[in-house]
Specification:
Oligomer: single chain
Number of domains: 2
CATH superfamily of the largest domain: Chorismate lyase-like
Helix content: 25-40%
Largest sheet: 6 strands, antiparallel
Number of strands: 14
Protein backbone atom coordinates (compact mmCIF):
# COMPACT_ATOMS: atom_id res chain seq x y z
CA UNK A 1 0.00 0.00 0.00
CA UNK A 2 2.79 2.43 0.85
CA UNK A 3 4.42 1.85 -2.53
CA UNK A 4 1.12 2.50 -4.30
CA UNK A 5 0.68 5.77 -2.40
CA UNK A 6 4.17 6.89 -3.36
CA UNK A 7 3.31 6.44 -7.04
CA UNK A 8 0.04 8.38 -6.90
CA UNK A 9 0.28 11.74 -8.73
CA UNK A 10 -0.19 15.01 -6.86
CA UNK A 11 -3.67 16.56 -7.16
CA UNK A 12 -3.79 19.40 -9.67
CA UNK A 13 -4.63 22.01 -7.05
CA UNK A 14 -1.60 20.97 -4.99
CA UNK A 15 0.73 21.35 -8.00
CA UNK A 16 -0.66 24.84 -8.59
CA UNK A 17 -0.27 25.61 -4.89
CA UNK A 18 3.37 24.48 -4.89
CA UNK A 19 4.21 26.52 -7.99
CA UNK A 20 2.54 29.66 -6.68
CA UNK A 21 4.17 29.25 -3.26
CA UNK A 22 7.58 28.97 -4.91
CA UNK A 23 6.96 32.05 -7.03
CA UNK A 24 5.71 34.00 -4.02
CA UNK A 25 8.89 33.16 -2.14
CA UNK A 26 10.92 34.37 -5.13
CA UNK A 27 9.17 37.73 -4.93
CA UNK A 28 7.51 37.50 -8.34
CA UNK A 29 4.18 38.99 -7.25
CA UNK A 30 5.28 42.23 -5.62
CA UNK A 31 2.40 44.04 -7.37
CA UNK A 32 -0.18 41.36 -6.60
CA UNK A 33 -1.11 37.98 -8.00
CA UNK A 34 -2.91 37.64 -11.35
CA UNK A 35 -6.67 37.15 -11.19
CA UNK A 36 -8.32 33.74 -11.12
CA UNK A 37 -9.12 33.88 -14.85
CA UNK A 38 -5.49 34.63 -15.74
CA UNK A 39 -4.23 31.86 -13.46
CA UNK A 40 -6.71 29.43 -15.02
CA UNK A 41 -5.26 30.17 -18.45
CA UNK A 42 -1.67 30.05 -17.21
CA UNK A 43 -1.96 26.62 -15.60
CA UNK A 44 -4.59 25.12 -17.89
CA UNK A 45 -6.85 24.03 -15.03
CA UNK A 46 -10.40 24.70 -13.89
CA UNK A 47 -11.24 27.78 -11.84
CA UNK A 48 -12.20 25.67 -8.84
CA UNK A 49 -8.67 24.22 -8.88
CA UNK A 50 -7.17 27.71 -8.75
CA UNK A 51 -9.49 28.70 -5.91
CA UNK A 52 -8.51 25.68 -3.87
CA UNK A 53 -4.79 26.40 -4.37
CA UNK A 54 -5.27 30.06 -3.40
CA UNK A 55 -7.24 29.06 -0.34
CA UNK A 56 -4.39 26.85 0.83
CA UNK A 57 -1.93 29.73 0.38
CA UNK A 58 -4.28 31.99 2.33
CA UNK A 59 -4.66 29.41 5.10
CA UNK A 60 -0.87 29.37 5.46
CA UNK A 61 -0.75 33.16 5.70
CA UNK A 62 1.20 33.59 2.46
CA UNK A 63 -1.44 35.70 0.67
CA UNK A 64 -4.35 37.96 1.55
CA UNK A 65 -7.51 38.11 -0.57
CA UNK A 66 -9.65 41.23 -0.43
CA UNK A 67 -12.72 41.85 -2.62
CA UNK A 68 -12.07 44.70 -5.01
CA UNK A 69 -8.35 44.86 -4.14
CA UNK A 70 -7.15 41.51 -5.43
CA UNK A 71 -4.73 38.99 -3.99
CA UNK A 72 -1.38 40.04 -2.54
CA UNK A 73 1.64 38.39 -0.96
CA UNK A 74 2.10 38.86 2.76
CA UNK A 75 5.27 39.70 4.67
CA UNK A 76 5.42 36.05 5.70
CA UNK A 77 5.92 34.99 2.08
CA UNK A 78 8.79 37.47 1.74
CA UNK A 79 10.46 36.21 4.92
CA UNK A 80 10.28 32.61 3.74
CA UNK A 81 11.87 33.35 0.39
CA UNK A 82 15.61 33.29 -0.29
CA UNK A 83 18.60 32.84 1.97
CA UNK A 84 19.51 36.26 3.26
CA UNK A 85 21.04 37.91 6.25
CA UNK A 86 20.94 41.43 7.59
CA UNK A 87 18.80 44.04 5.89
CA UNK A 88 17.99 42.30 2.63
CA UNK A 89 21.61 41.59 1.72
CA UNK A 90 22.72 38.21 0.49
CA UNK A 91 24.52 36.10 3.06
CA UNK A 92 28.29 36.41 2.69
CA UNK A 93 29.74 33.11 1.45
CA UNK A 94 33.05 31.69 2.57
CA UNK A 95 35.82 32.15 0.03
CA UNK A 96 37.00 29.19 -2.00
CA UNK A 97 39.36 29.42 -4.95
CA UNK A 98 38.18 27.36 -7.92
CA UNK A 99 40.68 25.67 -10.20
CA UNK A 100 38.52 23.13 -12.02
CA UNK A 101 34.82 23.98 -11.94
CA UNK A 102 35.02 27.07 -14.15
CA UNK A 103 36.95 25.22 -16.83
CA UNK A 104 34.36 22.44 -16.66
CA UNK A 105 31.57 24.96 -17.20
CA UNK A 106 33.29 26.30 -20.31
CA UNK A 107 33.72 22.77 -21.64
CA UNK A 108 30.04 22.00 -21.06
CA UNK A 109 29.13 25.19 -22.87
CA UNK A 110 31.20 24.18 -25.89
CA UNK A 111 29.66 20.69 -25.98
CA UNK A 112 26.02 21.83 -25.96
CA UNK A 113 23.83 23.82 -28.33
CA UNK A 114 22.35 27.12 -27.23
CA UNK A 115 19.22 29.02 -28.23
CA UNK A 116 19.16 32.65 -27.16
CA UNK A 117 15.65 33.60 -26.07
CA UNK A 118 16.07 37.22 -25.02
CA UNK A 119 18.85 39.76 -24.51
CA UNK A 120 18.01 43.14 -23.04
CA UNK A 121 19.70 46.01 -21.24
CA UNK A 122 17.67 47.28 -18.29
CA UNK A 123 18.06 48.89 -14.87
CA UNK A 124 19.13 46.45 -12.16
CA UNK A 125 16.43 45.48 -9.69
CA UNK A 126 17.26 45.80 -6.01
CA UNK A 127 18.02 42.07 -5.78
CA UNK A 128 20.26 42.02 -8.87
CA UNK A 129 22.05 45.18 -7.75
CA UNK A 130 22.73 43.66 -4.32
CA UNK A 131 24.24 40.51 -5.83
CA UNK A 132 26.42 42.40 -8.34
CA UNK A 133 27.30 45.14 -5.82
CA UNK A 134 25.78 47.84 -8.02
CA UNK A 135 23.59 50.80 -7.23
CA UNK A 136 19.90 50.12 -7.79
CA UNK A 137 19.02 51.23 -11.30
CA UNK A 138 22.49 50.77 -12.82
CA UNK A 139 22.28 49.11 -16.22
CA UNK A 140 22.79 45.36 -16.59
CA UNK A 141 22.47 42.95 -19.48
CA UNK A 142 19.87 40.25 -18.85
CA UNK A 143 20.07 37.24 -21.16
CA UNK A 144 17.92 34.12 -21.25
CA UNK A 145 19.07 31.00 -23.07
CA UNK A 146 18.17 27.33 -23.40
CA UNK A 147 21.00 24.81 -23.70
CA UNK A 148 20.41 21.44 -25.35
CA UNK A 149 22.19 18.17 -26.00
CA UNK A 150 21.42 15.60 -28.66
CA UNK A 151 18.73 14.26 -26.31
CA UNK A 152 16.89 17.58 -26.15
CA UNK A 153 16.67 20.61 -23.82
CA UNK A 154 19.02 20.51 -20.84
CA UNK A 155 18.77 23.85 -19.06
CA UNK A 156 17.16 27.28 -18.97
CA UNK A 157 19.76 29.90 -18.06
CA UNK A 158 19.26 33.52 -17.04
CA UNK A 159 22.33 35.72 -16.56
CA UNK A 160 22.86 39.28 -15.39
CA UNK A 161 26.11 41.08 -16.23
CA UNK A 162 26.99 44.74 -15.52
CA UNK A 163 26.53 46.67 -18.76
CA UNK A 164 30.02 48.15 -18.40
CA UNK A 165 31.24 44.61 -19.16
CA UNK A 166 28.38 43.29 -21.31
CA UNK A 167 28.71 46.17 -23.77
CA UNK A 168 31.54 44.16 -25.33
CA UNK A 169 29.30 41.29 -26.52
CA UNK A 170 25.84 40.92 -28.03
CA UNK A 171 23.14 38.39 -28.86
CA UNK A 172 25.17 36.85 -31.69
CA UNK A 173 28.18 36.34 -29.42
CA UNK A 174 25.99 34.72 -26.75
CA UNK A 175 24.71 32.25 -29.34
CA UNK A 176 28.23 31.22 -30.33
CA UNK A 177 30.41 31.16 -27.19
CA UNK A 178 30.04 30.33 -23.47
CA UNK A 179 29.54 33.49 -21.45
CA UNK A 180 32.67 32.85 -19.36
CA UNK A 181 34.74 33.04 -22.56
CA UNK A 182 32.97 36.28 -23.49
CA UNK A 183 33.73 37.73 -20.06
CA UNK A 184 37.41 36.99 -20.41
CA UNK A 185 37.43 38.35 -23.98
CA UNK A 186 35.98 41.54 -22.48
CA UNK A 187 39.00 41.92 -20.23
CA UNK A 188 37.61 40.18 -17.13
CA UNK A 189 39.98 37.83 -15.32
CA UNK A 190 37.65 35.28 -13.74
CA UNK A 191 38.70 34.37 -10.22
CA UNK A 192 36.13 32.36 -8.28
CA UNK A 193 32.48 31.39 -8.08
CA UNK A 194 29.94 30.87 -5.30
CA UNK A 195 27.24 28.36 -6.19
CA UNK A 196 24.14 27.03 -4.49
CA UNK A 197 22.02 24.12 -5.70
CA UNK A 198 18.42 23.63 -4.66
CA UNK A 199 15.25 22.27 -6.27
CA UNK A 200 12.17 23.92 -7.72
CA UNK A 201 9.16 23.09 -9.86
CA UNK A 202 8.68 23.92 -13.51
CA UNK A 203 6.07 26.57 -14.21
CA UNK A 204 4.25 26.77 -17.54
CA UNK A 205 6.97 28.80 -19.27
CA UNK A 206 9.85 26.63 -18.08
CA UNK A 207 7.91 23.46 -18.89
CA UNK A 208 7.55 24.59 -22.49
CA UNK A 209 11.23 25.48 -22.89
CA UNK A 210 12.52 22.30 -21.23
CA UNK A 211 9.91 19.94 -22.68
CA UNK A 212 8.65 18.72 -19.30
CA UNK A 213 5.28 18.68 -17.59
CA UNK A 214 4.19 21.63 -15.47
CA UNK A 215 5.16 20.89 -11.88
CA UNK A 216 8.14 18.69 -12.80
CA UNK A 217 11.11 18.86 -10.44
CA UNK A 218 14.15 20.78 -11.66
CA UNK A 219 17.62 21.42 -10.26
CA UNK A 220 18.00 25.11 -9.48
CA UNK A 221 21.54 26.50 -9.64
CA UNK A 222 22.47 30.02 -8.55
CA UNK A 223 26.02 31.05 -9.31
CA UNK A 224 27.84 34.32 -8.64
CA UNK A 225 31.09 34.79 -10.58
CA UNK A 226 33.83 37.06 -9.25
CA UNK A 227 36.95 38.43 -10.94
CA UNK A 228 40.42 38.19 -9.42
CA UNK A 229 39.80 41.51 -7.62
CA UNK A 230 36.79 39.87 -5.92
CA UNK A 231 34.26 41.98 -7.79
CA UNK A 232 31.03 40.27 -8.95
CA UNK A 233 30.90 40.12 -12.74
CA UNK A 234 28.00 37.74 -13.43
CA UNK A 235 24.95 36.40 -11.61
CA UNK A 236 23.31 33.28 -13.01
CA UNK A 237 20.08 31.38 -12.41
CA UNK A 238 20.04 27.98 -14.08
CA UNK A 239 17.18 25.47 -14.14
CA UNK A 240 18.27 21.96 -15.17
CA UNK A 241 16.41 18.79 -16.06
CA UNK A 242 17.63 16.24 -13.48
CA UNK A 243 17.39 13.40 -15.98
CA UNK A 244 19.95 15.12 -18.23
CA UNK A 245 22.23 16.89 -15.78
CA UNK A 246 24.42 15.48 -13.03
CA UNK A 247 26.57 17.39 -10.57
CA UNK A 248 29.31 15.28 -9.01
CA UNK A 249 31.77 16.25 -6.29
CA UNK A 250 34.65 14.28 -4.84
CA UNK A 251 35.05 15.11 -1.18
CA UNK A 252 38.04 14.77 1.10
CA UNK A 253 38.57 15.71 4.71
CA UNK A 254 40.89 18.64 5.34
CA UNK A 255 42.22 20.05 8.60
CA UNK A 256 42.33 18.85 12.17
CA UNK A 257 39.59 17.23 14.24
CA UNK A 258 38.66 20.67 15.59
CA UNK A 259 38.25 22.18 12.14
CA UNK A 260 36.34 19.77 9.96
CA UNK A 261 36.10 21.25 6.49
CA UNK A 262 34.97 19.18 3.52
CA UNK A 263 36.04 20.47 0.13
CA UNK A 264 36.13 19.35 -3.46
CA UNK A 265 39.48 17.91 -4.54
CA UNK A 266 39.62 20.70 -7.13
CA UNK A 267 39.08 23.42 -4.52
CA UNK A 268 41.63 25.09 -2.32
CA UNK A 269 39.71 26.54 0.59
CA UNK A 270 40.92 29.61 2.46
CA UNK A 271 38.87 30.39 5.56
CA UNK A 272 39.62 33.38 7.74
Amino acid sequence: MRGMEARMPLPKYHKVYLLLREQLQEGRFADGLPGEHALTSRFGVARITIRRALQQLADEGLITREPGRGTRATALADRKGGQRSGKGKAATPRKAQLSGLLENLVTMGLQTRVKVLTVEVLPATQEVAAQLQLNAGELVQKAQRVRSTSDGPLSHITTWVPQTIACHFDRKDLSQKPILMLLEASGVEVGRAVQTITARLADAELAQHLDVAVGSALLSVRRLIYDTQDRPVQWLHGLYRPDRYEYMMQLSRVGSIDAKVWVNQELTAHFS
